[in-house]
Design a protein that fits this description.
Blueprint lengths: L4 H31 L2 H27 L18 H28 L3 H31 L1 H6 L4
The structure holds fe (ii) ion (2 copies).
């Protein structure tokens, strides 16, 4: 089925965001593993895999809409040098993703592509969950202090 060009452009742009997030989160997850923060390693790794599933769904949809997924475009990958900086950078990524998904959802409505809209709405709910998880950690760090928080994340 031939897709609307503007919708396809938006899907490829979201794909670039997802591919960037996968890389950033994977590095953050492995840095936490390297420091011995096993719980953070697992939770950030889980978030990276969730973004991978989003990328998979976007690729699938772009192919269905008779177009070619662009997988060689990445945005700036922002690696945090410590845990609070990681979460701050990841918070920025999720904020940008939520904004971009909301804008793309409006676009799919204009193009009357409601099946794509439904897919994007499902992904948007996951992004809401991601930012919720990040903000929980940021609150815990603010309330416990970073050293105590990190002591709860070891193995
Ligand atoms: Fe995502
Ligand atoms: Fe996300």
């Amino acid at each position: 089925m031939k897709g609307d060009p503007k919708v396809l452009e938006a899907l490829n742009s979201l794909l670039a965001d997802e591919l960037t997030a996968i890389n950033q989160y994977m590095v953050h997850s492995e840095m936490c593993d390297n420091w011995g923060y096993e719980k953070l390693h697992k939770s950030i790794g889980k978030r990276a895999i969730s973004e991978m599933k989003h990328a998979e769904k976007l690729i699938e949809r772009i192919l269905f809409l008779d177009s070619a997924p662009v997988v060689n475009v990445l945005r700036e990958i922002r690696i945090g040098s410590d845990v609070p900086k990681m979460f701050s950078n990841d918070h920025d990524s999720e904020t940008a993703a939520i904004k971009a998904y909301n804008a793309a959802i409006l676009l799919t409505g204009d193009a009357k592509d409601f099946a794509t809209r439904e897919l994007l709405e499902d992904i948007l709910k996951d992004e809401d969950g991601h930012i919720d998880g990040i903000e929980t950690v940021q609150d815990e760090i603010a309330q416990m202090g970073v050293q105590f928080f990190l002591s709860t994340q070891v193995g």
